[in-house]
Design goal:
Structural class: alpha/beta
Order of helices and strands: EEHEHHEEHEEHHHEHEHHHH
Distance between the termini: 45 Å
Largest sheet: 6 strands, mixed
Number of helices: 12
Bound molecules: 3-methylmercaptopropionate-CoA (MMPA-CoA)
Strand order of the largest sheet: 1-2-3-4-6-9
């Protein structure tokens, strides 16, 4: 697909989108971004959930710094807006995405992960925002998405001091939702994506589209929007079938969480 900078596969109902510039630590250049856009659009039409992961030893080293040095200010604005458009297709597109992260997820790599809906990191994962050291600023939506996930205070700390977060730090900071042993993030992400793909498509769509928008509304408007979404989903044939399945004891029961490992 669009050269080899992205790999694309579908396994069952799950699209697997792999960043594939391992020799450059999956640094994101224009070609990779365009291939990512195509892969995300294809996933939205062919799959019910997607996983984004990195080939090689890292998730992504962020912006391709070699390509970046030659841009004028106006070219920079257009470049940043292209990142915004592609990441918006992930965050508010047709299907939910899970990021499987190992090694570096830095700068634009962390911004890409922030555009997905669930982040799984293995123990080797680390997160950094070296923009301050590089003399630049985030441009892939991080000031909105990362700041909302981990707080603007934590993000400022990372950008100003170069503080690096481990997988465990990132989980404590609410950036990462699952931490796995080394090498297990992709399998866990696939397992979660397969589970997500089994949900009612309209509920998944409402979660992807409505939930982030509701966070941008006032309390009262948010509650009203919620009622509209509730009415839309709960009167769908899919919901009626699934509610009946529960009442007729054909649906899976909710299991309590597994006891924590000692
Ligand atoms: C790159 C990039 C890159 C590696 N652009 N070429 N991002 C950064 O500031 C992160 C910069 N990268 C690193 O700190 C390290 O490369 C890593 C910690 C990610 C990995 O270290 P390591 O030892 O495995 O690899 P390496 O030897 O540093 O790099 C291997 C090659 O990848 C080398 O190229 P080579 O031709 O000399 O082999 C590196 O130059 C190349 N490489 N990272 C270009 N980022 C929308 S705005 C977003 C703003 C940002 O993303 S700022 C953060 C940028």
């Amino acid at each position: 697909m669009g050269g080899s900078e992205i790999t694309y596969d579908v396994a069952g109902a799950v699209a697997l989108v792999g960043l594939n510039r391992p020799h450059k630590r999956n640094a994101i250049d224009d070609a990779l971004l365009e291939a990512l856009r195509l892969a995300v659009a294809r996933a939205g039409s062919e799959a019910k959930a997607g996983v984004i992961f990195g080939h090689g030893d890292h998730f992504s080293a962020g912006l391709d710094l070699a390509e970046h040095v030659d841009r004028s200010p106006v070219e920079n604005i257009h470049h940043s807006r292209r990142w915004h458009a592609v990441f918006a297709e992930i965050e508010r597109g047709a299907i939910p995405f899970v990021a499987a992260i190992h090694g570096a997820a830095v700068g634009g790599g962390m911004e890409l992960a922030a555009a997905t809906h669930i982040r799984v990191a293995d123990e080797t994962a680390f997160f950094a925002l070296p923009e301050g050291q590089r003399g630049i600023f985030v441009g892939g939506g991080g000031s909105v998405r990362i700041a909302r996930l981990i707080s603007a205070a934590r993000m400022a700390d990372m950008m100003l001091t170069g503080r690096t977060l481990s997988a465990a730090d990132a989980e404590r900071a609410d950036f990462v939702q699952y931490v796995t042993p080394r090498g297990a993030a992709l399998d866990k992400a696939k397992e979660l994506a397969a589970r997500i793909a089994g949900n009612a498509p309209l509920s998944n769509y409402a979660i992807v589209q409505a939930l982030p928008r509701i966070q941008d509304l006032s309390h009262d408007d948010g509650l009203f929007f919620e009622s509209l979404m509730a009415a839309m989903t709960q009167t769908s044939p899919d919901a009626q079938d699934r509610l009946r399945a529960f009442l007729e004891k054909r649906a899976e029961r909710i299991a309590p969480p597994e006891p924590a490992k000692k």
